[in-house]
Design brief:
The complex is a heterodimer. Chain A is α/β, with parallel strands linked by helices. Chain A contains 7 helices and 10 strands. In chain B, strands 2-3-1-4 form a 4-stranded antiparallel beta sheet. Classes of the chains: A alpha/beta, B alpha+beta.
């Protein structure tokens, strides 16, 4: 369970990225977070991965209050939360396999575990035949799938997807969403921040709409409405 | 887990070193120069202390006995003088020992040996060498030997005032030491600057990896460790290079140094032997200085560019 209690984030005294947000996200939920640019979608996700700290309020993940998380605890938190981005953030000089292995190495996994797990994850994202390809040899959709595979390396409880389809065409976007649904069905809580109304409407899942940093609607089985 | 992590951090450090190999080499060179300067300072201190000790302990006051002075008289006189508070040691050199020393000193001058052979009797008289507790006492002791009590027994009293030499030497070594200290400090400053830039560039060239490491939950040690270890590797490489330069150099100059500073001394100070005996100090001193400079400069770069 993820809980936002009265959370605000102010970057400057004049501009508030988030204002008194109250939100409960049960484990295994799939939540689309929608809103215009600057509505606070990315900030909401960054607070969960402790890239940003809230100015006010409290954030709790499965009983762990991460509001005032210590610096040394951040890596531990991040190994429980997978994050994917619009620009994929892959290492261009490493193959698909190596990009995922790198994340596992960094996290301290032993070599035998890496050799066993990476092919399994690549199979899950349907890229097992492209494990030796470099990012520039892949399509945008494939790159995003590698990025998702990397996020799954530690079997995270939560997956944060920040505009994952922003750089992809409709076909590839839908491909990625299908993959997110599959991951969600395996028990991972998915938070999807997006602009893509077609995807949100087709998902028929919970939709949280943000406007100027405030939650203006929170509807189960909702649609994209600004 | 810790072991795996350390191996990976070490591997990343080696990769950092290779990725900016020319900069790494430049840093190693400047670090080596700093260590060499520091070692020069170290050995200069040792050498000047030995030279001073040698001068201070050198027999500055000698008195040659008259031919008719008996062995028992010589012994009584030596005991009498040795009890003086300003006398450290009295050494008697018999006429045979004096001849032997004379021969040794002129071993490569064959005509002297020929001349000695022609003389049937030993031309050298026994003598007494006096070491004072402090160089400034030689004048007083020499004056005492010229009083009525002792003068009848001596044919000749030789006395060199070494105090001005010592004073000059101290001034010279102090000057040289200051120059070496300033040079070492300047080089150390350069090392910090260059090392800082090396690490800064390494951080820059690894920024993508670092971003992703953070994203996937790498520990601070995993992210920062390679840069500190890279700096320590440069430091240790410099220690090895400096040591490989210093020992053969000392081995080469040691005989000349010995001849120049310690000729005529019974126990000649061997700089190379000293360097070999104190290798732990030599390497330890370098390692401490190099690792300190490396860790200090890399930590500044990391704190500034890897927050």
């Amino acid at each position: 369970m993820i809980t936002f209690k009265n959370v605000s984030k102010e970057y400057t005294a004049e501009s508030a990225a988030l204002q008194t947000v109250d939100l409960d996200i049960p484990t295994g939920d799939f939540v689309s977070i929608v809103g215009q640019s600057g509505a606070g979608k990315s900030t909401l996700l960054k607070l969960l991965s402790a890239e940003e700290r809230p100015s006010k309020g409290e954030i709790v993940i499965d009983g762990w209050d991460i509001t005032r998380i210590k610096r040394w605890q951040v890596p531990h938190l991040r190994r429980q939360i997978g994050v994917i981005f619009q620009d994929f953030k892959l290492l261009p000089k490493r193959t698909a396999f190596e990009n995922i292995a790198f994340a596992m190495e960094v996290g301290g996994s032993v070599t035998t575990e890496i050799r066993e797990t990476v092919p399994q994850i690549l199979k899950l994202v349907n890229l097992i035949d492209k494990s030796d390809m470099y990012p520039n040899e892949m399509s945008g959709g494939e790159r995003q799938r590698v990025s998702i595979a990397r996020a799954l390396a530690f079997k995270p409880q939560i997956l944060l997807a920040d505009e994952p389809t922003g750089n992809l065409d409709a076909l590839h976007s839908w491909d990625i969403v299908q993959l997110l649904i599959k991951i969600n069905k395996l028990g991972t809580t998915v938070l999807l921040a997006t602009h893509n109304d077609d995807i949100v409407n087709a998902l028929k899942k919970r939709v949280v709409t943000l406007n100027k940093g405030k939650v203006v609607s929170d509807v189960q089985g909702g649609t994209y409405k600004l | 887990m810790v072991g795996i992590s350390f191996v990976r951090v070490l591997r990343n450090a080696l990769r950092n070193f290779k990725r900016n190999v020319w900069l790494s080499i430049a840093t190693t060179v400047i670090m080596t120069l700093t260590l060499l300067m520091m070692l020069f300072l170290y050995f200069m201190n040792v050498l000047s202390a030995e030279v001073l000790r040698g001068i201070e302990q050198k027999v500055d006051l000698s008195a040659v006995f008259k031919e008719d002075v008996s062995e028992s008289q010589i012994e009584t006189l030596a005991n009498d003088i040795e009890v003086r508070a300003d006398v450290e040691e009295v050494r008697i050199v018999s006429s045979e020992q004096a001849l032997e020393l004379f021969r040794q000193r002129h071993a490569d001058e064959p005509f002297i040996e020929d001349a000695l052979r022609e003389l049937e009797e030993n031309p050298l008289q026994p003598s007494m060498f006096i070491v004072a507790t402090e160089p400034r006492f030689y004048q007083t002791i020499a004056a005492a030997l010229q009083t009525e009590k002792y003068a009848p027994f001596f044919e000749q009293i030789n006395y060199d005032d070494s105090e001005p030499v010592i004073a000059k030497l101290i001034t010279f070594t102090t000057g040289l030491r200051n120059v070496a200290l300033i040079t070492t400090a300047v080089l150390a400053g350069l090392v910090v600057l260059i090392m800082f830039n090396t690490i800064r560039l390494a951080i820059y060239s690894f920024r993508e990896e670092i971003d992703i490491m953070r994203l996937v939950g790498a520990s601070n040690w995993f992210i920062r460790g390679p840069f500190v270890i890279e700096a320590v590797l440069v430091a240790l490489l410099s220690v090895a290079v400096a040591t490989l330069i210093v020992y053969p150099t000392i081995q080469g100059v040691s005989p000349k140094v010995g001849r120049f500073f310690f000729s005529g001394q019974v126990e000649q100070f061997d700089l190379y032997q000293f360097a070999v005996d104190s290798w732990l100090n030599v390497v330890g001193l370098q390692a401490a200085m190099a690792v300190f400079l490396a860790v200090f400069s890399s930590m500044i770069a990391i704190r500034r560019y890897l927050r």
